[in-house]
Every structure is written in structure tokens, then in C-alpha cells.
Amino acid sequence: MSPTSPMQCAASLSAGLLLSVLPLSLGASGCAMAAESSSQSEQILRIANGAEPGSLDPQQTNGTWETRITRDLFEPLIAYSANGELIPGLAERWESSADGLSWTFHLREGLEWSDGTPLTAEDAVFALRRLLTPATAAHNATLYYPIVNARAVNTGALAPDQLGVAAPDAQTLTITLSHPSATLEQTLAMSEAAPLPRHVIAAKGADWTRPANMATSGAFVLKTWSPQAEIRLTPNPRYHAADTVALDEVVYLPIEESHAALNRFRAGEVEIAYGVPASHYTWIQDNLAAALLTYPILGEYFYVFNLRDGSPVADQRIRRALNLATRREVIIERILGMGQIPSWHFVPKALGEHQGARFDFADWSMDRRMAKARELMADAGYGPDAPLELTLRYNTLEDHKKIAVALGAMWKPLGVKVTLTNTEAAVHYRDLALGDFEVGRYGMIATIADAYDFLNAFSSDNTSNAPGLSSPTYDALIEAAAREGDVGTRQRQLHDAEQYLLDNDVVLPLYDYVTSSLVDPAISGWAPNALDVHPSRYLQLDTSH
């Protein structure tokens, strides 16, 4: 066999040919090893990252494809190790009072922003106040409500300077809570809680995230951002652990379609591809086994119903009928086949300590479920002779489309006529947040390893509450769990909250996520973990071949 050139690899793959016609003798990095690119002599890591980021302001992001980048740029007080454990970040140590209400964080000495400006505790105060300011509309703001006055600040009742955070000196941050929090350390490890360069934001305003303006605290700086093309990061020489960073450059590519990402990986054009197409999973197992990493993560794939007045699915009888008629095992086994866990629950099973709730029909036969579903639809005035027209929305991805088509087929016997609508991720989630949908595809990946992270999303005042659920009963359960110090009592409250979602058919859960990524075997430092956190500062490429 004659050697395969990089151009030949790229051409054959970018032509959109089926993988079955590609030369199977090429291994996971066959084309990559033939490529004479700069990444072979330099530490250049290229990542097929999913969607185009809507923002690189860490307090304006809400997707995993965005937080992967902001995690590289901004280090919080508490960071993640390579295997997803909490470790000191910008704070070298911290402690709390005996009652759990007063926390003190001690910043490392000599911290600087990437532009050389001293990084102080005042930057941390500024960031937390900004995070809770109503105009910021931070996606996870309610997770910080244990901080004194956080809710009042976030709702505009109090000024940001009333938030329970202070900087008694340049290296010390204090946080005062109104009640103990089981999740404070995890929330402070999110990139949205990282200190921000107040001097840049004050000078540049909304333009502070442009490459020429941005000052960062993490392992990397923003070199270039070419929208819909690529984002390039280079090492931050002023990072407190700069001598441990091996990569010379990280390139994030906005490749939403998993087939395209697979093609780019096969061509040696990316070293990491997040997400693989289910239709080719078996082929990948057989031919790219050394690169394929599949494991459970804290994530849930589900659909949300629009509960607002005027929505056809505001009627719970219809929502329950759709849940009853959904054959989760068919989706898992025949469409996906990657080891996903069918969901008769909402909080992922990978969160082992959570006492999970369950649909009351989980053990029914399919015949019994369909009979009940038809009865409910008839009660609501619909059936094959009086069809219900529903619009099903999903963000653009081939596997999402396959699932949406399957749902339409499963619901057809009930007299439901489904119209499919798809948009790119940023538009899709924006429209869901605005309530501009009837039934919408949703995915939730945990930002903290706690059931509260999933369940709090449906509180009345949470910006993630796409269904528009407004329930004093549910809100009371979430509020009680947020304040509860006893572990057993808190778990029961969270169980009851999850059961409420299921009993009222607020969601249509389909399966617990597993993550399947392609990672070039030449990469070291990648460790599977339930939060699927892989900071680039730990990664390294073997360029010896």
C-alpha cells in the first residue's frame, strides 16, 4: 500500500462518503500520523467542540461547549483536578466557621491577570456581585442564593453591594451565608464564579471578551476568535502554574454535526471529538477502539413541555399520554445503542447517593400504557379522528432528529400529528427560554454533583425553567432542600421534588447520558469522570512519532 497523504485523507472524508467505504486499515490516528502538520512538532491540540459559543463571558454561558473554553481561560477560587475532584484554584486554602455560615478564602500570593495587572480579592467580590446582578441574567444564579442577600440582589430588591461577600484585604475573600450550603464549594468551582478582570470590564464594557481586550486568570489566553470557524488559545505566562502547562495552543472548532467531527478526527484534523454518531458507533468500536472513550456522566436527555396558558400541552392529560406512549427502550437499543440508561426518573442514576423517584407506570406493560394513553387523549378531546397537532423542536444534530422522528411515530397512534422544527443550539435554547415552543428537546449536564443542580432548574425564579413551571409546592421543596443541613432529610426533600416533576409530567425524560468521545491515543492527562470535566492545562500530546 502506498502512503496516504494528509490531503488525500481530508479529501476522502470531507466528501461525505460513508465510513464503510473508507480504508479500514487506517487506525485511530492513521491520517494524523501521515500528516506533516505543525501539531506534530508543537503541542497543538485541536478539539471538535460542538456548537459555536454564544459568548466567552463566563457569566453569560450555559452550554458545555462554552464552559470548556471559559474553564481554560478563567480559574475560579476552587478548581478541578484532571479526574474531576475539587482542588485549590486561585485560592490556596479556605475554611468555614463551625456553623457553616462564614467562609474565608485565602488567595495565592502574587496572582496577576494575563495583562500583568494584580489579581486581588476585590476581583472576586466584583465577579460574585456581577453574577447576581439582574442584568447579567446568569444561567445558574439561583445556585448562589445561600449567600446573604443573594436572592434580593438577583431580583433587584437590593443593590449588588449588599451581597454577603467582602475583601478585608487583597488576598482574602469572605463569604457569609444565610444558611449552611451543601454545594457552595462546587458552585464556586464553576467558571461563572471565577474572579473577573474588573479593570478591563470597566474600560471596555461589552467588548471586554474580544481577543485584543480580554485579560484572563486561567492557564490560557484568548489569541483569536473567528466566529463559526475557530477559537485559538495560547498559554498564559502569568498563570500561577504556568510551568505545568504542556500545550502550545488549543484550537476549539465549532463542529455541531457528529459525523463531520468523526470525519475530521479520521483525517487527523482534530485530536478530540466530543460526541460520536450513534449510527456509526459499532463501526467506531471495531475500528477506532483505542480512541473511543465511553462512560456514564451526570447528564439527562429529555424533552420539556410548555406549561404556559395557550400551549396545547398545558393539559396534563396530554403530557401523561405522551409519556406513557414513549418507548424509551426502543430509542436506547435501536436508535442509539451506546449504553444509555432509559429514564423512568429524572435525576441521573450516576448520582448514586440520590434517592431517585420514578414514574408510577414504569412497570406497566406497553399494552396497558397505550390503553391508558388513548383514554387520556380521548378525555382531552383528541384521537385519530380528531388529531392534535404538535410542534416538536430540537437543536440541529442527526441523532436528535432521529429521536424526534421516533417520538412522532410513537405518538401517532394517539392521534398526534407532529411537525419537526430544528435550529442551531444557541437559537434553540434561546427560544425555549422565551417559552416559544410546545415540546422541546433539552439536555442537562451537571455543573455540580448534586441532585439539587437538576431540580433547582425548575424553580419559578430560575432562568433555566423552560417549561414555565410555577408551583408553590415545588418551590417550597427546593427552598427547603437548599437550607437543610441534615443529609437524610435533604435527600428526602429532593426525592419529593423529583417525584413532583414526574407526577405532574413537567418533563419527558428519555435516558441518562453516557459520553462517547474520540480522544487521540497520543494524548495523556485525560481522565474519565462523571462531570466530564477535562481542563486543557492537564493535557499533553506525544509528538515523538
Automatic annotation (TrEMBL):
Its main location: other. Residues 1-34 form the signal peptide. It comes from the Bacteria. Keywords: Signal, Transport. Residues 85-464 form the Solute-binding protein family domain. It is found in: Cell envelope. InterPro entries: Peptide/Ni-bd (IPR030678), SBP_5 (IPR039424), SBP_5_dom (IPR000914). Pfam families: SBP_bac_5. PANTHER family: PERIPLASMIC BINDING COMPONENT OF ABC TRANSPORTER, PERIPLASMIC OLIGOPEPTIDE-BINDING PROTEIN-RELATED. Belongs to the bacterial solute-binding protein 5 family. This is Peptide ABC transporter substrate-binding protein. It comes from Cobetia amphilecti. The lineage of its organism: Bacteria, Pseudomonadati, Pseudomonadota, Gammaproteobacteria, Oceanospirillales.
